[in-house]
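EI: anyone free to look at a 76-residue chain?
SC: sure, send it
EI:
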Amino acid sequence: MKVEITKDMTETKPINLKKSVFDSIELKIKDPILGFESVEEYVHYILEKALEIHDESDKRSEDERVEEKLKQLGYI
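SC: here you go
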């Protein structure tokens, strides 16, 4: 399956996902609490968050990274 990823919301480039991954995402986003309307929107969001965390991890201490991860998981 191809998913379009936007760059600054003006340019998109395709990526390929295994059908099983695409199908799993489709099932996950059916939950209205998540607020995603498409697989593309969800993948874009997840990749942005992953890149943010990676970029910030070099600047923060291990304790700060653990605290941030716990917040994302809803424990804090």
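EI: The mean pLDDT is 81.
SC: 👍
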